From TrEMBL:
This is DUF3618 domain-containing protein. It comes from Sphingobium soli.
Protein backbone atom coordinates (compact mmCIF):
# COMPACT_ATOMS: atom_id res chain seq x y z
CA UNK A 1 0.00 0.00 0.00
CA UNK A 2 1.29 3.38 -0.90
CA UNK A 3 1.36 6.29 1.51
CA UNK A 4 -1.38 7.96 -0.52
CA UNK A 5 -3.65 4.94 -0.08
CA UNK A 6 -2.94 4.85 3.65
CA UNK A 7 -3.74 8.58 3.93
CA UNK A 8 -6.91 8.06 1.86
CA UNK A 9 -8.12 5.19 4.04
CA UNK A 10 -7.35 7.18 7.19
CA UNK A 11 -9.30 10.12 5.78
CA UNK A 12 -12.24 7.85 4.91
CA UNK A 13 -12.20 6.33 8.40
CA UNK A 14 -12.02 9.81 9.93
CA UNK A 15 -14.93 10.97 7.74
CA UNK A 16 -16.99 7.95 8.78
CA UNK A 17 -16.27 8.64 12.45
CA UNK A 18 -17.21 12.31 12.03
CA UNK A 19 -20.40 11.33 10.18
CA UNK A 20 -21.34 8.92 12.99
CA UNK A 21 -20.78 11.67 15.59
CA UNK A 22 -22.89 14.06 13.52
CA UNK A 23 -25.73 11.54 13.32
CA UNK A 24 -25.50 10.93 17.09
CA UNK A 25 -25.56 14.67 17.76
CA UNK A 26 -28.54 15.14 15.46
CA UNK A 27 -30.45 12.33 17.18
CA UNK A 28 -29.64 13.77 20.61
CA UNK A 29 -30.82 17.21 19.50
CA UNK A 30 -33.98 15.71 18.05
CA UNK A 31 -34.66 13.94 21.35
CA UNK A 32 -34.10 17.18 23.31
CA UNK A 33 -36.60 19.16 21.25
CA UNK A 34 -39.29 16.50 20.97
CA UNK A 35 -42.71 17.71 22.15
CA UNK A 36 -42.92 15.08 24.88
CA UNK A 37 -39.51 16.07 26.26
CA UNK A 38 -40.34 19.79 26.14
CA UNK A 39 -43.66 19.11 27.90
CA UNK A 40 -41.94 17.08 30.61
CA UNK A 41 -39.27 19.76 31.07
CA UNK A 42 -41.98 22.41 31.46
CA UNK A 43 -43.83 20.26 34.02
CA UNK A 44 -40.63 19.69 35.97
CA UNK A 45 -39.83 23.39 35.97
CA UNK A 46 -43.33 24.33 37.16
CA UNK A 47 -43.20 21.69 39.88
CA UNK A 48 -39.79 22.87 41.05
CA UNK A 49 -40.94 26.49 41.07
CA UNK A 50 -44.07 25.59 43.03
CA UNK A 51 -42.05 23.65 45.59
CA UNK A 52 -39.63 26.57 45.94
CA UNK A 53 -42.58 28.90 46.47
CA UNK A 54 -44.08 26.64 49.12
CA UNK A 55 -40.74 26.44 50.91
CA UNK A 56 -40.39 30.23 50.77
CA UNK A 57 -43.89 30.77 52.17
CA UNK A 58 -43.24 28.20 54.88
CA UNK A 59 -40.09 30.02 55.92
CA UNK A 60 -41.91 33.36 56.02
CA UNK A 61 -44.73 31.86 58.09
CA UNK A 62 -42.20 30.59 60.60
CA UNK A 63 -40.59 34.04 60.76
CA UNK A 64 -43.85 35.97 61.24
CA UNK A 65 -46.69 33.70 62.35
CA UNK A 66 -48.88 36.46 63.84
CA UNK A 67 -48.72 38.65 60.75
CA UNK A 68 -49.53 35.71 58.49
CA UNK A 69 -52.43 34.65 60.71
CA UNK A 70 -53.83 38.19 60.67
CA UNK A 71 -53.50 38.41 56.89
CA UNK A 72 -55.16 35.03 56.34
CA UNK A 73 -57.95 35.96 58.76
CA UNK A 74 -58.55 39.27 57.01
CA UNK A 75 -58.61 37.54 53.64
CA UNK A 76 -61.05 34.94 54.98
CA UNK A 77 -63.37 37.63 56.33
CA UNK A 78 -63.18 39.49 53.04
CA UNK A 79 -63.99 36.35 51.06
CA UNK A 80 -66.91 35.49 53.36
CA UNK A 81 -68.29 39.01 53.68
CA UNK A 82 -71.58 38.30 51.90
CA UNK A 83 -72.53 35.19 53.89
CA UNK A 84 -71.53 36.94 57.12
CA UNK A 85 -73.59 39.98 56.19
CA UNK A 86 -76.59 37.79 55.37
CA UNK A 87 -76.24 35.98 58.69
CA UNK A 88 -76.05 39.23 60.64
CA UNK A 89 -79.10 40.60 58.81
CA UNK A 90 -81.13 37.50 59.65
CA UNK A 91 -80.07 37.69 63.29
CA UNK A 92 -80.94 41.39 63.42
CA UNK A 93 -84.37 40.75 61.93
CA UNK A 94 -85.07 37.90 64.36
CA UNK A 95 -83.91 39.95 67.33
CA UNK A 96 -85.83 43.02 66.17
CA UNK A 97 -89.03 41.00 65.52
CA UNK A 98 -88.77 39.36 68.93
CA UNK A 99 -88.75 42.79 70.63
CA UNK A 100 -91.76 43.86 68.60
CA UNK A 101 -93.73 40.76 69.68
CA UNK A 102 -93.01 41.36 73.34
CA UNK A 103 -93.67 45.09 73.06
CA UNK A 104 -97.16 44.70 71.60
Amino acid sequence: MTPAEIAYRAAVANADAQRARLVDSAQAAKARISPARLKQDAKDKVAATALDGVAYVGAKVQQRPIAVTAAVGALGLFMARRPITALLRRLYVRFHDRHRQFGD
